[in-house]
Amino acid sequence: MAVIKSLCVFCGASDAVDPAYRDAATRLGTLMAAAGIELVFGGGRIGLMGLLATAVIKGGGRVTGVIPRHLHQIEVGARQPLGELHVVETMHERKALMFDRSDAVAVLPGGLGTLDETFEVLTWKQLGLHDKPIVIIDVAGYWAPLLHQIETIIASGFAPRSSLQLMRIVKTADAVLPLLATLPEPRLNPPDRFSLT
What we know:
Blueprint: E1 6-10, H1 19-35, E2 38-41, H2 47-58, E3 63-68, H3 69-76, E4 84-88, H4 91-100, E5 104-107, H5 112-126, E6 134-137, H6 144-155, E7 168-170, H7 176-182
Parallel strand pairs: 1-2, 1-5, 2-3, 3-4, 5-6, 6-7
């Protein structure tokens, strides 16, 4: 079985969202802290990111944030960052470092940035660059349109049906860690430093 010591979580930075999404972020953070799983996230103090990281810290867990310099003032600002914070130069560096520091990926509701991050790690997995688990948390059906679009991509011949095996889908934050505990060890041994080049 896979040993998950650190979990990268992609999620939104907006506060003006359905309370169900906010509750899911807080719940996942609480569960991660209780299980001793480090959070690797986008480094922001706002939106679901902030709720998630705050819950991990309140539960005594470890948090590592990665944020590009141009977003630092917007998403963190002069306030004390939540946990360890790495400030990088580009979005590409952010994604690579988040990936490097984690054993698996989970996706909560989010916006275009969350979609970008999610599709990047899915594409890397499709290309055989890694075999880390990727779990989509479809809180209140948020990701249903995306999953429908993936089915359309497959039906239209742009991707094989096996693409659905690149990720697992759960409905609640409570289902994430039990699912990860059942998955086999990744088949690939990723390099010490994942590279986009």
